[in-house]
Amino acid sequence: MKTFPENFLWGAAASAPQTEGGAFEGGKSASTWDKWFELEPERFNAEQGPSITSDVYHRYKEDILLMKDIGMNSYRTSIAWTRLLPDGKTLNQEAVTFYRKYFTAMIENGVEPIINLFHFDMPWWLMEKGGWEVRESVDHFAFYAKTAFEQFGDLVKKWTTFNEPIVHIECGYLSNFHYPCKHDFKLAVQVGYHTLMAHVYAVKEFRKAGIPDGKIGIILNISPAYPKSDSPEDLEAKERADHVNIYSFLDPAVLGVIPDKLIDLFERNELLPMVESYDRELIAENTVDFVGMNYYQPLRVKAAVDPRFPAKDRSDFYNGYIWPERRMNDYRGWEIYPEALYDVAMLMKEKYHNIPWYVSENGMGVAEEERFTDAKGQIKDDYRIDFVKEHLEQLHKGIEAGSQCFGYHMWTFVDCWSWLNGYRNRYGFYRVDIENDCKRTLKKSGAWYKQLIENNGC
Ligand code: BGP
User: Fold this and answer.
1) Distance (Å, whole) CA 362 – CA 391
2) How many Å lie between the centroid of ligand 1 and the Cα of residue 183?
């Protein structure tokens, strides 16, 4: 049996916009997702929008008991900025009451809340001004962060600023998956820079708040790049991919510096963002205490074919390729490669002074899971159990080699709403029956996870 360290965090992750629902209840204002769905419902799978999702706004008590049932000792979700500060300035007391009850119920049931501030859910009032494109977004975010620390700092000890900041940049400004669906590399870099500064200002607010025993981190998605060959061109493609997609946030967040190689690459390609003279110092002063790593898939890269200069997209820095031996989760189109989790563990140990970190998301989305229901009504998701086992094996190897990983969170606890994919792919330990009042039913993987937690290993 592979035993994990004492007090290891076992749990799951989710986000406010994907679970809460109550989109226009309790004084909440519209997020960009709420508004985009109103404008273009046909862009969303089966026209499933964010207004109800898994109804956690009304069911959080019931859900926390279900967490307890499977022994989870921690859970990450986020606060909806649009609920706490509907106009960006005025504190919504109903939201304070809701989140205080929600977090208190977790604590009372032995589930430590890890609370994130931004999970792709830009308030619409701010998006109308340009969202992360404009520098004033940084100040608005800092005020929101400060408010959250003041209101909930007595309950929540582990905080994170952003979930996967690269995703709202690439999906909103390089591909067509998040509003505002622009394609502009230079703007994408500016959006990324403002996001980074918003993170830095939130960390600064956190230090000022002086929450006893409080720790702050950031959640990044990590897809380590694996080069097609050892040729200098393919190796350079790997370096560029890792710099753009990983080190761009990980280096400033943990080491307090933006890597020179990235600055040089952007400078040569006329992509440098507008900055303030004091930013560099602020980045250096406001590093994190821990990192969350969302790992789903690796990135296979080779040298770019016919790159444009200056670059118009990441494909001018590196190209993807299909690794002939790959295994796929075809429902999501993501490669399954557990070995990368060991590489991530080693990266954190060797490049990032062995900072404490945890697997903040890992999981497997599968469509039409009801196919696997047995006579007693339980979904037999053995594929998910195998997936987790294989990943935990690699993680365990990394911990044995000295990496300071303190937890493993599955995406997700109850099936949740997924952006443009709606409820197509399911990830949860509990099935959510959206046709039947969002009823929850334990899947086989949930029962298996309970055993895993009891044994602190598998
Ligand atoms: C991560 C996000 C989550 C979640 C998950 C699964 O990148 O942090 O919000 O959605 O991926 O991906 P998807 O829902 O696109 O299948």
Assistant:
1) 8
2) 21
